[in-house]
Amino acid sequence: MVTTRRTQQERRAQAEAALLDAAAELVVQHGVRSLTLARVGEQAGYSRGIVTHHFGSKQALLERLARATQAGFVPGLGDLPPGLDRLLRLIDGYIGALGDVGTMNRAFLLLWAEAATASELAPIFRERDEAFRSDLRSDVTAGITDGDVRPDVEPGDVAIAVVGQLRGIGLQRLLDPHTVDTARLRHTVTDYWRRALRVP
Question: How far apart are CA 6 and CA 115, in angstroms?
Fold first, then answer.
């Protein structure tokens, strides 16, 4: 039997992933206030020193967690050019992903909601939301240029409305999962935006 030794880079990546998973679990179970480097290490089966080595501070850990929890929420969009099609696929995929919210996605939504009152989270999520809105603005602007989206549409307004709607649906899903039928809602919301934006 041949065993392959992992490289230092692979061990580091595995440890970081385990620590981020542990941080997400703590946020879901006990809220962001419960998050300390020591508790994350204990939850992951590592020492606090390892957590400090990887992240340096709680603020750096929160920043990495915010990025990790948001990454890949709707896979398969990276190869699509900006435009109405990508925007509608994002909306459909986002709501569809809410149907099976894992720990990372749940942690993201909880952190996002807490950012309104937690000073250590607010700048992180302002930046993440602006990146999200920027992508959406690019889709609407490209759609206008392509002739698929009505020229009187304001890309910034659409971006704010879409982010608010998607995040709001996500929070409702967390609070009352039996009320939010994501399988049906994804089609309803996607169709709404298709009709609202498309050139008649």
Answer: 38
Pseudo-torsion of CA 121, 123, 128, 131, nearest 10°? 170
> Which residues partner with 149 through β-bridges?
198
Indicate the pTM of the whole model. 0.81
List, for residues 165-200, the tens digit of each pLDDT value: 999 999 999 889 889 999 999 999 999 999 999 998
CB atoms within 10 A of CB 174: 17
* Cα distance between residue 144 and residue 146, in whole Å: 5
Q: Please report the beta strands in 69-168, taking only residues with DSSP state E, as ranges in sequence order.
A: none
Task: Compute the Cα dihedral for 120, 121, 127, 130 and give only its sign.
Answer: negative
Residue 9's Cβ-count burial label (10 Å; 0-12, 13-18, 19+) is exposed
Q: How far apart, in whole angstroms, are the C-alpha atoms of residue 54 and residue 61?
A: 8
Total residue length of the chain: 200
Kindly tell me the burial class for residue 161, based on how many C-beta atoms sit within 10 Å of its own C-beta (0-12, 13-18, 19 or more). Answer: middle
